[in-house]
Amino acid sequence: MRYVQPLTIEQRTLLEKTMKDDASFRARTRAHSLLLSAQGTTIQAIAKTYQVDRDTVSSWLKKWEHQGAQSLHDKPRSGRPPTLTPDEQAIAQQYIKEEPRSLKSVVERLANHTAKRLSLSSLKRLAKKARLRWKRVRKSLKRLRDPEAFAKCKRALEALQKQEDQGKIALYYFDESGFALDRLFAKFEASV
């Protein structure tokens, strides 16, 4: 069985402080694991506690022995470099602003301009990074309605509304807007 080498007072203090106060969950986990190992807890038990592989816990112990306090925190990792240069990103953002509803055409324009092809998801991430937002467009059917029929129904509705105001009928609407050409309904109450 393998345990961490005996800890000095400074090391123990550092590990306890890291375990309690560090912002990184992974650093807190590693510090606690090292303290547990110093108390005689097996690698298998620590792995079970933190639901990691025993090789992971073993690597934490080895790194602690070789690197000390630096092993508690993850080193910065580099990601994939961006496909587009900053100038090309600015061009892409301009294309998105010009054609916000057709990202596929933006991809094509950008490919023609830069000879680089982006996926739609990459283009969306670029737009999000530039704080560009889309709003859902409301579709109106106003142009499809017959103006004469609309005016006729509107007058009929106003007449029914007056009757309801006078208490002669109870008027109910079937749609959210309160008006539909083919769904007028009035419940006539018996006059007393």
What does the radius of gyration come to? 35 Å
- The portion of residues assigned to helices is 40-55%
Shape: elongated
Oligomeric category: single chain
Task: Supply the number of helical segments.
Answer: 8
Low-confidence stretches: 182-192
Distance between the termini: 96 Å
Walk across the major sheet and give the strand order: 1-2
Derived from helix and strand composition plus strand pairing, the structural class reads mainly alpha
How many individual β-strands? 2
Give the topology string: H per helix, E per strand.
HHHHHHHHEE
User: Mind summarizing the main beta sheet?
Assistant: 2 strands, antiparallel
What proportion strand? 5-15%
Mean pLDDT over all positions: 84
Give a verbal description of the structure.
By secondary structure, the protein is mainly α. The C terminus is likely disordered.
Per-chain topology:
Layout: H1 9-21, H2 25-38, H3 43-50, H4 54-67, H5 86-98, H6 103-114, H7 120-129, H8 147-165, E1 169-173, E2 184-188
What is shown here, in short?
This protein is mostly helical and 192 residues long. Helices cover 54% and strands 5% of the residues. It has helices at residues 9-21, 25-38, 43-50, 54-67, 86-98, 103-114, 120-129, 147-165, and strands spanning 169-173, 184-188.
Notable characteristics:
single chain, 192 residues, mainly alpha, 2 strands, elongated, disordered C terminus
